[in-house]
Every structure is written in C-alpha cells, then in structure tokens.
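Practice problem: predict the structure.
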Amino acid sequence: MKLLVNRILKIFILSSIVLSSFVATANNDNPGDKNKIEESAKIEYSIYPIINSNKVRVAYQKTGNEKVTIKIFDAKKNLLFSDVQKNVTSLKRNYNLENIGDGTYYIKIISGDFETDQKIHVGRSEKNLFSAYLSPELIKNKVRIAFQHAQDPVRVSVLNEKGSKLYDKTITDTQNFSSLFNLSSLDSGKYTINISSNGKVTSNTYEIK
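Answer:
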C-alpha cells in the first residue's frame, strides 16, 4: 500500500513539473506579443499607360475602411477627372484620355492619410525609378511606409536603439506599396525604420514617449 502511494505521489509530482514547464513556456511568448508591430490600412497599387492607346490603367488592392479617390490632372495640374471608390477593396480600371490626346498627365491616388502623385506620359514610354517614403514624424505612434516602382525585392525593417531587429520583412510581389505601421506596443525609446532595395536605403528614426 505504501509503495502504491509513493508511486502516485511521484506521478503527481512529475505531472506538476510538466504542467509548470508548459505554463512557463506559454508565458515566454507574451514579450513577443507585447512588442508586436501591427500593419493596417495597406494599399498596393499600379498606374501605367496602356501601350498603343490613350488609356491609363489604375489598379489597387487594399485593407482598411478608408475610401479611395483617384484624380487625373493635365500637365498644368488642372483637374480633369475625379473618381471616388467607397467600400471597394480592389479595383482595375482603364481611364480613356482619347479626347485629350497624347501628353503628360498626373494621376493621384488618395486613401486615408496616404497620397501618391505619379507623373505619366501617354503616347510614349519612360523608365520609372524606385522611390520610398517614410512619414517625417509619428502620428498617434503610427508611421506611413510606402514605395513605388520597385523592380527588385524591398526590405522593411524596424530596429531599436541597440540595433536589434524587431521587424524584418521582404516584399517581392508588388511594385507599389503603402501601409500604416502601428508602433504603439513598443516600449518608450528611439526606433529606426529602413526601406531598402537594390542598395538604395531610405531611413528615419522615431521616438516613442
């Protein structure tokens, strides 16, 4: 009887150790969740003239509730057309400029606090160069990260003051991209965000108080 009781006690102790180990392991995940950087209000887009025509293709795919406004201007920045899309998460549309003809146009896409103004030429082609954008300062601990005309993979990283990477993502499936990154979960301190592609780096440092 005593031997049986000892065996039961051993099983109980071992079970308690395993359970404690499991709880400790689960709790270790919390610091990672605490410092999670959330991405929201993302929009990927493309703007380009259609060859052998006077049409311009505008396409986008997004998340978030912001409406999307598409505006077309002539070379002197006179507004020619405005199109507002509400509750439309994706769009592919050709805009016909046949009545105006060949020339230079500006296409603007506006979604929430994001705005891009792209110069295009209808009737001839030109090479678009990669460019990246970071908000000059935080707004409610959120930063806008955007790039356009990416021909190579684009790497987005967030580093703390010690140089440790808290976020590191390589984007390969889109040429034009914009998203809000929420840094509210991070501790007080300074953080650096880098956008890099094919040796070109855009960087900015922000302070969370």
